[in-house]
Amino acid sequence: MAGEPSDRSENKTAHKGKVPQDVGSFSHARTPGAAVKLPKTRLVLLFLAAIGALIGLNSALIRSSLPAIVSRAPLGDGHGVFMVFGFLGGAIGLERAVAYQAGSPAKPKWGFLAPAFAGVGSLLMIFEVSPLVSRETPIAPLAFMASNPQMLPGLAWTLSMAALTGIYLGVWRRQQSVAVLIQLLGSFLGVCGIALWARGVDAQMLAPWWMAYLVLTIVGERIELARVAFIAHNIEWLIFFSALAFSLTLGLCLLNPAIGYPAMGVTMGIMLLLAITHDTARKTFKLKGVTGFMGTCMLVGYAWALLAAAVWIFSPTGFEGYWRDMAIHALAIGFTMSMVAAHASMIIPSITRRPMTYKPVLWVGWAVMQLGLAVRLLGTTRASTLLWQWGDGISVAGMLAMMVTVAALNIATSKKSAASKATATATATDHSRAVHPEASPHPKVTAPPKASSQR
Q1: What is the mean pLDDT of residues 86-99?
Q2: How many angstroms separate the CA atoms of 116 and 353, rounded?
Q3: Which of 73, 145, 156, 350 could form an S-S bond across to 120 if both were Cys, CB 3.0 to 4.6 Å?
Q4: Higher pLDDT, 225 or 233
């Protein structure tokens, strides 16, 4: 997390091909052989974020008129809010809460309200689109929920974002940095964006606000992780002021889209160009193993984000239809999910306190997501609904594959690590007994000396 101890920095480890470790991660210094308690509360919160992802992906299939496990039409309208605030908001809030607790001597727990409220928002949203909630129901609270479907889930997600903002403020009080300011700005935009949605503003109008929250969070995180590269060129404040300008254009998009969207594309493009030209990913993508995987994911993510900026500047068909959809998903899938995939080997172990070994199979889910976006882009250029649908379906498959792969690797590595520790402990015990027989739990019993028969 930004502002915490610098052992997360990639600058010390990228050239060695090692995975940078997070504050509070399983790999943090611990007593060798000591058992690490499974953080059940964190796992529940991570599970709630996963529910947000699964429902969001199901909603994407409904939105694209593709076969879905749950086919209730109202779910399709919640696709964006499930993915941004139920899934990504919950996961970001959980990772930040873990790092904030680990970096504070007081070990505060209130930060976990961020992922908790994110999960509550997802559950409320699921309940509100269920057949139980109807305007015709004689039960007054359910009728109220049906008449105001965005209010309660929106309130929960607003509280989640407010708690995340509080975490950043707490970090800022301990250690001021540009990275924290950028992420704080992003979380503030997230609060504004979801609060407006709770008041009934259309999600399509607010999508740039939601994307700004994700983009600024990731850019701030990249500055923190590759701190030395950005500080060496005095580039941090330039990125901050471009991020501030980018944020100011969001209101202009609501008031005057014809001016606001191009301005938003220009300011975001400048910010991203400043970030990518100083990010360590430009060098690490050439390496093998997890470091090369991370670098490649990040560079491709930057490319998709720059495409979104270009669409907002030069879109030939205005700000609706296929091109608008392409820009949003270039940021949501191409940029955000690529960055999530790049840092999964850091994020998940920090939450679960269990190691995760990199395997080349991680490339599969990520590559499928990129293929889906490429097909969507082709459909956009040709105004083809069929290609757009296929692209959406392929992207959903890629994200599901990535989630399953990360979970499987985490479980497999944890079991292997537990087995290795058990073997090491047994070997050490056997060695100890051989060297110190008296330490054995079952010492050899010897007969007492016989009494002498001579008087």
Answers
A1: 96
A2: 19
A3: 156
A4: 225
- Contact (Cβ atoms closer than 8 angstroms) between residue 328 and residue 364: no
The mean per-residue pLDDT over the stretch 234-263 comes to: 93
Both tokens assigned to 391: 């692209």
∠ CA(245), CA(249), CA(254), 5° rounding? 165
Distance, CA of 115 to CA of 316 (rounded, Å): 39
Query: Which DSSP symbol is given to 19?
Result: P
CA 432 remoteness from chain centre: 45
Q: 189-193: long-range contacts (C-beta < 8 A, 24 or more apart)?
A: 189/213, 189/216, 189/247, 189/250, 190/85, 190/89, 190/161, 190/164, 191/158, 191/161, 191/162, 191/165
SS3 424: helix
Residue 452 in this model has a pLDDT that exceeds 60:
no
Tokens matching residue 447: 């007969």
Give, in order, the Cα–Cα distances in Å from 306 to each of 204, 299, 341: 20, 11, 19
Nearest to 3 by CA among 95, 111, 90, 103: 103
Please name the residues in contact with 414: beta carbons below 8 A apart, sequence gap of 6 or more. Answer: 352, 354, 355
- Sign of the torsion angle spanned by Cα atoms 60, 388, 397, 193: negative
Q: Is the pLDDT of residue 32 over 50?
A: no
CB within 8 Å of 13: residues ≥ 6 apart: 19, 20
Q: What does the angle CA 27 – CA 32 – CA 33 come to, to the nearest 5 degrees?
A: 105
pLDDT of residue 78 exceeding 60? yes
pTM of the full predicted structure?
A: 0.84
Cβ neighbours for 432, distance < 8 A, ≥ 6 positions apart: 439
**DSSP letters of 73-107?**
HHHHHTHHHIIIIIIIHHHHHHHHHHHHHHT-TT-
- pLDDT digits over 342-351, tens only? 999 889 999 9
CA distance 398 to 372: 8
pLDDT band at 146, cuts 50/70/90? low
Domain chopping of the chain, boundaries: 41-133+148-176, 196-279, 292-419
Question: Would you state the structure tokens that stand for residue 318, as one six-digit string?
Answer: 């205005």
What is the full DSSP assignment across 330-378? IIIIIIIIHHHHHHHHHHHHHHHSS-----TTHHHHHHHHHHHHHHHHH
